[in-house]
């Protein structure tokens, strides 16, 4: 990927870098140790492809991770990187971002890392809205511990820790993020490079917390878990690409549309070229009220097409802007408001303020 | 305002131990603080001990709801807030009953008589009115109808009954001011400032405060009042203030960051009795960045992120939170980042005694992590010393690239004393391992002297590198599972911590260095050990005292010092954690004195133990 073609935003403008950095400049000399065919490679490729377009020198990037397959990513990116402890990357990222607000801070996490052990940090980082980008590698399984059910594992799924099928209700990462007040929320499959490049560029350009769920295939422990959404033969019928201001039209024949009936989304078929049903849902990424984004985040296969693209992108105060120390006379701080001065004789008078 | 009646008997004292006690909503902490500030401004020494329940407003009138504020003030030997209470001001029967065990024989009790009604007497758990049963016969009792007199003082002020009732703490304070010849001007200024916007409230409190003083002056009974003897020696020229241990810790971190030329970042979560460290720093957004995190873990996690970004990073907590931070402390150990972890110890295990004090986290601080995980551990010895200890903890963290635990405790954190405010220029400069050197940069190369690795803060051009919790290859910092490397790194991490001993000053001996017995203390027992030794010195019994600041690694001269004395006593507010560690390290047998009651030692407890060790009566 060349520097000039990265970062196609929603408006179609191309962000060229004048630093002359290329994707290769962001690839470290450590060879990734992911399984052959793992979806993690795709994220790494498009992440390092996004960085040159941000027009920032390499030292201004920090990639922070927790524990799990996703969280090996920092070792493979030639920026500052920190492979922290399980579930807590967002806390480290928050402290770093507050310390140096001009950094571009990216968190690499997984469904177990972000939603199970790190669930608390996830919702709180999102609600504070620091200018941090979070990529959640959702493979619906614990990969690095070799195949246990995760918080996103489907009900009934047999895994090593659910030999008779999981009976836990899975979490929807985007619903959680949106409920916590995410100002940017998006979803993309690991197989869709074009959309991933677009979403990561938009996330990079967003001021505030940006959350991106990547539907990611684990070839070893959960192979094909998203094939109903990613296989070329079916994906046009099972997913719908979200476009701002546009109806949710999908289907190989582009003859299906998501409509709204009260609070319930439905699928209706229409004649291509004819007028859409009047109750067709029109996407609006910038609407303040999160209800639409939340509704979209709950759309699931097979009743409804699964939306991919940007669910929500709104401007809001950025957390790190709250910190702007101006310095001053620290001696006065040490003194406090009630200090006094004593002389050799023990005579006392109030200290000058 | 004439608060002194010359005809009355005036007794002179060197020091006084007084306790204000009432319902937790009665404003006892406030009047205690006012009294303390006034004493400090009168040039006297002070040591305070707030003693409050963990419930915010337990049912009024019950023992569970009693809040107390004790202080010792005077001009000599003010080392602790005092063993036994000499003057108790009790606003209700529960406050009297709860504090009976703390009273000295013959203590003066100033009781709000109006509160000794049947209902309140029962609520306090008395079978009969203690004012009438004779059980207070050994004490000097002054029955003062404070509620009634407060009401009278405010007659016509047009205040609601509830507001009148809430002012009676200032009546008690006024009476205490008369009793000890306190200068009322500080409190009057404070009232003016506090209630400047509400003139009627200001006037009301002022009237009640003055009525309390006037009431004392009008007493015709045999109640004497007291004058504190002048100081033998002035404190020396300088700027002074009153400071609590938690405030001093916060200020120490600010000063350390300034002397290191770094930002200060604190990631923390509210927890008793450590919260004040966070709240103090939150008052100074121009000097530091404070994140009130979603939990204890996020508190330290954010601090580690800040350390990666080149800040002086700290987190503050108490026992349960300290446990939660454990995994992250190990991340700072293996990534060798500077970090200060303040543990304001409280009674444990688990939630334990949240508002009470203990020294029971020493083992956890030194050893309580998985893997071989050496870190530095320091302890502060007085509220004022929390400042120096925080600066020293920061110095070590930055010089050796290591997490440092600073142990204080509830008694130090909440207690306060008079502090000489240092000039920032007089504090040591704190060199850091920050580097911008690109040529030959290796994340895990080491300073030959300290073994510290370079600190390549995020944002430093050309020093992009990756760190993490996986074992690092010596030098390069690359991830490796090599057996030989792991053993080497384990030894390097331990040796680095051991080298901190090279900076340590000789361990100081106070008291009588030639005595037969050495008392070795650490942390908040410093004052009470000194007090006990000074009592014993008056009886002709010499005691040598050493007090540990460096809990890990321990000072290199400590073993020789312990061997110099025939008898060694280690008093601790735990079951013998330092004692255990010393025996394990040096194979020296020692005596110990342990108290695990959530309360500090009394001097007589230590005196008795020393006497029994020496075989004297």
Topology:
The complex is a heterodimer of chains A (353) and B (617).
Chain A: H1 40-50, E1 61-65, H2 73-76, E2 80-83, H3 89-99, E3 104-110, H4 111-117, H5 119-128, E4 132-138, H6 173-179, E5 184-189, H7 193-205, E6 210-215, H8 227-230, H9 232-238, E7 239-241, E8 249-250, E9 256-261, E10 264-269, H10 291-297, E11 306-313, H11 330-335, E12 340-342, E13 348-350
Parallel strand pairs in A: 1-2, 1-3, 3-4, 4-6, 5-6, 7-11
Antiparallel strand pairs in A: 5-11, 8-9, 9-10, 12-13
Chain B: E1 10-13, E2 15-23, H1 28-41, E3 45-51, E4 66-74, E5 85-90, H2 93-99, E6 103-112, H3 118-123, E7 140-144, H4 146-153, H5 161-166, H6 168-179, H7 185-194, H8 199-218, E8 225-228, E9 238-244, H9 245-260, E10 264-268, H10 275-282, E11 289-292, H11 296-308, E12 312-317, H12 319-324, H13 326-335, E13 339-345, H14 362-367, E14 376-379, H15 385-400, E15 403-409, H16 410-414, E16 416-420, E17 466-468, H17 483-498, E18 509-511, E19 517-522, H18 526-538, E20 544-548, E21 550-552, H19 558-564, E22 567-572, H20 577-586, E23 591-594, H21 603-614
Parallel strand pairs in B: 1-8, 2-5, 5-6, 6-7, 10-11, 10-12, 12-13, 13-15, 14-15, 19-20, 19-22, 22-23
Antiparallel strand pairs in B: 2-4, 3-4, 9-16, 14-21, 18-20
Helix pairs in contact in B: 1-6, 4-8, 6-8, 7-8, 9-10, 9-15, 11-13, 18-21
Helix proportion range of chain A: 10-25%
Kindly state the number of beta strands of chain A.
13
In whole angstroms, how far apart are the ends of chain A?
A: 61 Å
Strand order of the largest sheet of chain A: 2-1-3-4-6-5-11-7
Into how many domains do the coordinates of chain B divide? 3
Question: What are the key terms here?
Answer:
A: 353 residues; alpha/beta; Rossmann fold; 2 domains; 8-stranded mixed β-sheet; 3-stranded antiparallel β-sheet; 13 strands; 19% strand; B: 617 residues; Pyruvate-ferredoxin Oxidoreductase, domain 3; 3 domains; 7-stranded mixed β-sheet
Task: Describe this protein's structure.
The complex is a heterodimer of chains A (353) and B (617). Chain A is an alpha/beta fold and 353 residues long. Chain A folds into two domains: 3-246 and 284-322, Thiamin diphosphate (ThDP)-binding fold, Pyr/PP domains (Rossmann fold, 3-Layer(aba) Sandwich), CATH 3.40.50; 247-282, no CATH class. Chain A is built from eleven helices and 13 strands. Chain A has helices at 40-50, 73-76, 89-99, 111-117, 119-128, 173-179, 193-205, 227-230, 232-238, 291-297, 330-335; strands at 61-65, 80-83, 104-110, 132-138, 184-189, 210-215, 239-241, 249-250, 256-261, 264-269, 306-313, 340-342, 348-350. In chain A, strands 2-1-3-4-6-5-11-7 form an eight-stranded mixed β-sheet, with helices on both faces. Chain A has a three-stranded antiparallel β-sheet with strand order 8-9-10. In chain A, helix 1 packs across helix 7 and helix 6 packs antiparallel against helix 10 (291-297). The model of chain A is unreliable at 1-16 (pLDDT under 50). Chain B has 617 residues and is an alpha/beta fold. Chain B has 21 helices and 23 strands. Chain B has a seven-stranded mixed β-sheet with strand order 11-10-12-13-15-14-21. Chain B has a six-stranded mixed β-sheet with strand order 3-4-2-5-6-7, sandwiched between helices. Chain B has a five-stranded mixed β-sheet with strand order 18-20-19-22-23, with helices on both faces. In chain B, helix 10 links the parallel strand 10 (264-268) and strand 11 (289-292). In chain B, helix 1 packs parallel to helix 6, helix 6 packs across helix 8 and helix 9 (245-260) packs across helix 10 (275-282). Chain B starts with 9 loop residues before the first strand and ends with a helix. At the A-B interface, strand 1, strand 2, helix 3, helix 5 and helix 11 of A face helix 1, strand 9, helix 9, helix 11 and helix 13 of B. Strand 2 (80-83) of chain A pairs parallel with strand 17 of chain B, so a sheet runs across the interface.
